[in-house]
Amino acid sequence: MRDIMTSPHSPRGPAASEAPLPRHVAIIMDGNNRWAKARGLSGIRGHHAGVESVRAVIRRAAERGIETLTLFAFSSENWKRPPSEVNALMELFLMALQREVKKLHRHGIRLSVIGERNGFSASIQRHIASAEALTRDNTGLHLVIAANYGGRWDIACAARLLAERVAAGELEPEAIDEQALDDEVSLSGDAPVDLCIRTSGEQRISNFLLWQMAYAELHFTPVLWPDFDGEAFDRALADYQGRQRRFGMTDEQLEAQQGE
């Protein structure tokens, strides 16, 4: 099996524009089933093919100096899929934790998993904890896997934690503001999402990182996830670099800010 950081292509993509790259990229990996169906294969074959795209994108994100890469692997709604597919996805998730984590660690990548872990088997939960402990002190790319995750769930959990602090007398209700909630949601220590990529032509965010993507640029591509590679990732970054991020400001304000 090829090392997760070994690419058969050039180690870097096209020459980077002078425009800044996103610090945090989030990806909704969509299209595995359609990719498989078009080839007369089972859905799980599509998921297995998608693993290679995961490796390619991790390699390229690390090469381009992205700080955080968050991949939407399994949503809280995905439990509604056929049991055979869910079971196969769980086996694939466990296999990835068993086979890939040491490679990530060898290349200084820190791994985190966000989502409701109690829905997973005891074995998967143990491997998640072990992977996070092994890579905790790494200072390279922060790779985040969102598994059994939902944006509404995330915000509700944060609200509950704040409510518990109020009930315990540790926090005044008047002290609850955007920053207080931001401190409690997943990935509070990382930069907000700058760029969200969704593959397969769908144009929605599907309950993914709702709080963290408040000002994210959205990049939708018709490419199915198993066909999404380092070059496709570079194109998404170039699209981001070609945009003007206003954050509510006028052109004149942006020009003045950039001239400082």
Automatic annotation (TrEMBL):
<dbReference type="GO" id="GO:0009252">
    <property type="term" value="P:peptidoglycan biosynthetic process"/>
</dbReference>
<keyword id="KW-0479">Metal-binding</keyword>
<dbReference type="GO" id="GO:0016094">
    <property type="term" value="P:polyprenol biosynthetic process"/>
</dbReference>
<protein>
    <recommendedName>
        <fullName>Ditrans,polycis-undecaprenyl-diphosphate synthase ((2E,6E)-farnesyl-diphosphate specific)</fullName>
        <ecNumber>2.5.1.31</ecNumber>
    </recommendedName>
</protein>
<feature type="binding site">
    <location>
        <position position="47"/>
    </location>
    <ligand>
        <name>substrate</name>
    </ligand>
</feature>
<keyword id="KW-0961">Cell wall biogenesis/degradation</keyword>
<keyword id="KW-0808">Transferase</keyword>
<feature type="binding site">
    <location>
        <position position="198"/>
    </location>
    <ligand>
        <name>substrate</name>
    </ligand>
</feature>
<feature type="binding site">
    <location>
        <begin position="75"/>
        <end position="77"/>
    </location>
    <ligand>
        <name>substrate</name>
    </ligand>
</feature>
<comment type="function">
    <text>Catalyzes the sequential condensation of isopentenyl diphosphate (IPP) with (2E,6E)-farnesyl diphosphate (E,E-FPP) to yield (2Z,6Z,10Z,14Z,18Z,22Z,26Z,30Z,34E,38E)-undecaprenyl diphosphate (di-trans,octa-cis-UPP). UPP is the precursor of glycosyl carrier lipid in the biosynthesis of bacterial cell wall polysaccharide components such as peptidoglycan and lipopolysaccharide.</text>
</comment>
<feature type="binding site">
    <location>
        <position position="79"/>
    </location>
    <ligand>
        <name>substrate</name>
    </ligand>
</feature>
<feature type="binding site">
    <location>
        <begin position="204"/>
        <end position="206"/>
    </location>
    <ligand>
        <name>substrate</name>
    </ligand>
</feature>
<dbReference type="GO" id="GO:0008360">
    <property type="term" value="P:regulation of cell shape"/>
</dbReference>
<dbReference type="InterPro" id="IPR018520">
    <property type="entry name" value="UPP_synth-like_CS"/>
</dbReference>
<feature type="binding site">
    <location>
        <position position="30"/>
    </location>
    <ligand>
        <name>Mg(2+)</name>
    </ligand>
</feature>
<keyword id="KW-0133">Cell shape</keyword>
<feature type="binding site">
    <location>
        <begin position="31"/>
        <end position="34"/>
    </location>
    <ligand>
        <name>substrate</name>
    </ligand>
</feature>
<comment type="subunit">
    <text>Homodimer.</text>
</comment>
<keyword id="KW-0460">Magnesium</keyword>
<dbReference type="InterPro" id="IPR036424">
    <property type="entry name" value="UPP_synth-like_sf"/>
</dbReference>
<dbReference type="GO" id="GO:0008834">
    <property type="term" value="F:ditrans,polycis-undecaprenyl-diphosphate synthase [(2E,6E)-farnesyl-diphosphate specific] activity"/>
</dbReference>
<dbReference type="GO" id="GO:0000287">
    <property type="term" value="F:magnesium ion binding"/>
</dbReference>
<feature type="active site" description="Proton acceptor">
    <location>
        <position position="78"/>
    </location>
</feature>
<feature type="region of interest" description="Disordered">
    <location>
        <begin position="1"/>
        <end position="21"/>
    </location>
</feature>
<comment type="similarity">
    <text>Belongs to the UPP synthase family.</text>
</comment>
<feature type="binding site">
    <location>
        <position position="35"/>
    </location>
    <ligand>
        <name>substrate</name>
    </ligand>
</feature>
<dbReference type="Pfam" id="PF01255">
    <property type="entry name" value="Prenyltransf"/>
</dbReference>
<dbReference type="InterPro" id="IPR001441">
    <property type="entry name" value="UPP_synth-like"/>
</dbReference>
<feature type="binding site">
    <location>
        <position position="217"/>
    </location>
    <ligand>
        <name>Mg(2+)</name>
    </ligand>
</feature>
<dbReference type="GO" id="GO:0005829">
    <property type="term" value="C:cytosol"/>
</dbReference>
<dbReference type="GO" id="GO:0071555">
    <property type="term" value="P:cell wall organization"/>
</dbReference>
<keyword id="KW-0573">Peptidoglycan synthesis</keyword>
<feature type="active site">
    <location>
        <position position="30"/>
    </location>
</feature>
<feature type="binding site">
    <location>
        <position position="81"/>
    </location>
    <ligand>
        <name>substrate</name>
    </ligand>
</feature>
